[in-house]
């Protein structure tokens, strides 16, 4: 049976402010170019989009500028989130997600 899934490592991390953290995410997909995402839920339960990526590009939310990036390693099927330097306001639960839904254009 074929299955699309993401796996996150190191679910709980305590990080010193000013340091770098890498949140690990690997994926297994039958689709050659899945859409990959990072989201987070902050302590106030605010759900936020963090980063998007596919085979050829990536894009982050406004607050990611300059401190957040992704390491998209295609051959290892990895989509790691890097935060550097970490700030107190980065405290949240981070989730890696994948979408393999194909969008078929409508006929006019």
From TrEMBL:
One of its GO terms (biological process) is adaptive immune response. SMART domains: IG, IGv. This is T cell receptor delta variable 3. PROSITE patterns: IG_LIKE (PS50835). Keywords: Adaptive immunity, Immunity, Immunoglobulin domain, Receptor, Signal, T cell receptor. GO terms for cellular component: T cell receptor complex. The lineage of its organism: Eukaryota, Metazoa, Chordata, Craniata, Vertebrata. PANTHER family: IG-LIKE DOMAIN-CONTAINING PROTEIN (PTHR19367:SF39), T-CELL RECEPTOR ALPHA CHAIN V REGION (PTHR19367). It comes from Piliocolobus tephrosceles. Residues 4-108 form the Ig-like domain. Coiled coil: none annotated. SUPFAM superfamilies: Immunoglobulin (SSF48726). InterPro entries: Ig-like_dom, Ig-like_dom_sf, Ig-like_fold, Ig_sub, Ig_V-set, TCR_variable_region.
